[in-house]
Amino acid sequence: PENKRKKETQKMLSELAVGDQITTIGGVKGTICAVKEDSVVIETGADRVRIEFLKSAIGNKEKTTSSAK
Questions:
Q1: Which residues fall within 8 angstroms of residue 16, CB to CB, at 6 or more apart?
Q2: DSSP-assigned letter for residue 16
Q3: The whole model's pTM is what?
């Protein structure tokens, strides 16, 4: 089970793209605005603050729906 979780996490991290909604392990939520080799730059809130995080600090990617209301 642990190996399965590691593979799922690695797959999620390798598939990160600009525009994805993510949450870091520290609870920071934001939208990816740049993807680098080992890190991502996210934009948080309406004030458009940009913060760079290591990919390993990303907790999960929010599920996006095609029909957002």
A1: 22, 32, 35, 40, 55, 58, 61
A2: -
A3: 0.79
